[in-house]
Design brief:
2 helices, 31% strand, globular
């Protein structure tokens, strides 16, 4: 984990996904409702996070980088990639000669501009179905 603004930034590796996560580090950290989106500007560029809630962690912010992870030959390869992602996230992009486009040198969705979704709650989403919350 690394301090970033009012949050702790880190990576979460599960058997099925690799995510960037932000955990509140101070009482001043913005409180978002589950499903809300917020864009954060890191030295490498803008990253869109979505708020999720966990019974142990409370509300945290996540950005999916890769899913599924079965293309990696080992857990060590995933950890190495994760460490590189965290290093690159906090480095400014290398200067490029004019006229050349710059792509974020990270896998996943960090190089894609996404609009923040409406914070309005919708009924009947796949997430609601999977959580048994269909009305």
């Amino acid at each position: 984990m690394r301090r970033f603004e009012q949050y702790w930034a880190g990576a979460l590796i599960t058997p099925w996904t690799l995510q960037l996560i932000l955990l509140p580090a101070t009482a001043e950290a913005e409180e978002l409702a589950e499903g809300d989106h917020r864009t954060f500007v890191f030295p490498q560029g803008s990253v869109v996070f979505m708020a999720s809630e966990n019974s142990d962690l409370g509300v945290y912010l996540a950005c999916s980088l890769m899913s599924p992870l079965h293309d990696f030959p080992s857990q060590e390869a995933i950890r190495s990639t994760t460490e590189e992602v965290m290093t690159l996230l906090f480095q400014p992009p290398a200067e490029q000669p004019s006229g050349e486009s710059v792509k974020v040198a990270m896998p996943g969705r960090l190089d894609i501009e996404r609009e923040a979704k409406s914070v309005e709650k919708k009924s009947g989403t796949r997430r609601d179905f999977l959580r048994g919350m269909m009305k």
